[in-house]
C-alpha cells in the first residue's frame, strides 16, 4: 500500500474484525465475531504495556458489540451522508471521486465509512433515552467552575413567515415570477390585515417547511440570521407584518412573534452538561451489552 493510501485510510474510522487472519492471531471472541491482533497492532509501540494492550482489546470488543447491535436495530447511514464523507476524503487527499473509486481499497473505505456513520447514529439513537434534566445545583456548580467574564446577552427572535419560491405563471405570461410572487404576498398581507389568520394562510400557501407549524420558527439568534432577514427584523415591532421582501430561497412576508435576550455562556454550560449526561448514559448502555454477550479474551497472546 502506498503512503498516500495509508494516509487516506487513516482518515476513516477503521474497524478491523479480520476473520481471515491465521488462527493464532485471534485475541478475542465476541459472540460469533473474531477479533485478531491486526485490529490493535497499529496502535501498539515497542514499549506498550500489557495493560494498554488490554485497553485496546476492550475497545475493539465494545465496537464489535455496537456493530452487532446496529444490525439488530437496523441503523443505516443515508446515501447522501456516505457520499459526503467520500467527497471529503477525496478532497483531503487531492483526488477526484473517480480516482478514489478506482482504488483497490475502495470497498474497504466504503465499509469503514458505513461503520463510522452507523456508530454515530447508534449513539444518537441511544442517547435520546438519557435523562438530561438539569438541576439548579448542577448548573450553579458548573458556573462556579467556569464563570462568565463578559455577562454578554444575545438577542433572540421568534418569527412567523410565509415563504414563496415559485408560482404558477400559466395565466400571467406578461409578468415575471418575482412580480407574481410579490403581488401574491401583497394580497395575502391585505387578507391578514383584515383579520385572516396568518397561521392558516401559512399552512395553505407557504413553501417553507415551517408551514406545518403555521409558519412559526423556533428561537433564532439574530446575529446568525442572513443580513436581509436582520434588515427586515430591525424595521419591525412585535406583531407587525413586513412588506414582501426577497431572500435567497424566494420571497417572504414575516412578523415577529416574540423577542428575548439570553446569556450565551449559561446556554453553553447547559449544553455541555447535557452532552456529558448523554455520554455517560451511552457508556453505561455499552456496558450492559457485555453482560448479555459471550466474550472470551486470549490475553496470553498480547
Features:
302 residues, alpha+beta, Triger factor/SurA peptide-binding fold, Chitinase A, domain 3, 2 domains, 4-stranded antiparallel β-sheet, 3-stranded antiparallel β-sheet, 11 helices, elongated
Task: Walk me through the structure.
The chain is α+β, with helices and mostly antiparallel strands and 302 residues long. The chain is built from 11 helices and 7 strands. A hairpin with a 2-residue loop joins strand 5 and strand 6. Helix 4 packs across helix 6. The chain is elongated and about 80 Å long.
CATH homologous superfamily placement of the largest domain: Porin chaperone SurA, peptide-binding domain
Per CATH, the class of the largest domain reads Mainly Alpha
Largest pleated sheet: 4 strands, antiparallel
Helix amount, in percent?
A: 40-55%
**Number of domains as seen in the coordinates:** 2
> Helix/strand/pairing class, anyone?
alpha+beta
Question: What is the residue-mean pLDDT, rounded to a whole number?
Answer: 88
Order of helices and strands: HEEHHHHHHEHHEHEEHE
CATH topology of the largest domain: the name is Triger factor/SurA peptide-binding fold
Strand order of the largest sheet: 4-3-6-5
The radius of gyration over CA amounts to: 27 Å
CATH architecture of the largest domain: Orthogonal Bundle
The total of helices stands at 11
Low-confidence runs (pLDDT<50, min 5 residues)?
1-23
The portion of residues forming beta strands comes to: 5-15%
Shape: elongated
- Total strands: 7
Distance between the termini: 26 Å
Amino acid at each position: 500500500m502506498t503512503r498516500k493510501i495509508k494516509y487516506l485510510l487513516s482518515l476513516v474510522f477503521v474497524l478491523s474484525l479480520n476473520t481471515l487472519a491465521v488462527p493464532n492471531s485471534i485475541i478475542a471472541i465476541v459472540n460469533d465475531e473474531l477479533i485478531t491482533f491486526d485490529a490493535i497492532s497499529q496502535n501498539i509501540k515497542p514499549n506498550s504495556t500489557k495493560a494498554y494492550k488490554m485497553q485496546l482489546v476492550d475497545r475493539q470488543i465494545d465496537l464489535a458489540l455496537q456493530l452487532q447491535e446496529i444490525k439488530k436495530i437496523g441503523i443505516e447511514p443515508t446515501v447522501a451522508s456516505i457520499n459526503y464523507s467520500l467527497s471529503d476524503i477525496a478532497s483531503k487527499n487531492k483526488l477526484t471521486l473517480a480516482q478514489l473509486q478506482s482504488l483497490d481499497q475502495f470497498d474497504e473505505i466504503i465499509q469503514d465509512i458505513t461503520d463510522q456513520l452507523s456508530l454515530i447514529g447508534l449513539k444518537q439513537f441511544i442517547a435520546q433515552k438519557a435523562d438530561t434534566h438539569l438541576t439548579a445545583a448542577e448548573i450553579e456548580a458548573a458556573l462556579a467552575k467556569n464563570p462568565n467574564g463578559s455577562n454578554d446577552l444575545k438577542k433572540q427572535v421568534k418569527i412567523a413567515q410565509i415563504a414563496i419560491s415559485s408560482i404558477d405563471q400559466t395565466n400571467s405570461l406578461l409578468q415575471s415570477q418575482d412580480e407574481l410572487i410579490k403581488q401574491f404576498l401583497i394580497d395575502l398581507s391585505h387578507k391578514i390585515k383584515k383579520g385572516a389568520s396568518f397561521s392558516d394562510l401559512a399552512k395553505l400557501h407557504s413553501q417553507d417547511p415551517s408551514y406545518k407549524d403555521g409558519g412559526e420558527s423556533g428561537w433564532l439568534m439574530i446575529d446568525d440570521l442572513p443580513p436581509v432577514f436582520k434588515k427586515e427584523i430591525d424595521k419591525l415591532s412585535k406583531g407587525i407584518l413586513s412588506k414582501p421582501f426577497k431572500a435567497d430561497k424566494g420571497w417572504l412576508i414575516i412578523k415577529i412573534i416574540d423577542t428575548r435576550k439570553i446569556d450565551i455562556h449559561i446556554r453553553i454550560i447547559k449544553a455541555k452538561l447535557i452532552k456529558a449526561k448523554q455520554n455517560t448514559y451511552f457508556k453505561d448502555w455499552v456496558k450492559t451489552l457485555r453482560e448479555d454477550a459471550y466474550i472470551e479474551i486470549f490475553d496470553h497472546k498480547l
